[in-house]
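seq:
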Amino acid sequence: MPYTGAARVDAVKLGPNNIRNGKIEYRRQKTQRSGGVLISVPIHPDLVEVLDKLPKDRPFLATQKGAMRSAGGLGNLM
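struct:
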């Protein structure tokens, strides 16, 4: 979540498909009714180093089994 500005509900959905042109891009769930505000954040070099080590076929904050984590579940871990 550091370097993304993402809320838990958005962070659990982020994955390799959200990386575009050196940025993490996603639409905020909070503004979903109005089409979602597009968030586009340059990827910090420290974050690049971490993301490069993660599997490319699942969300960044996936469970050990590779499933998408719930926002509540992430909150419990925090």
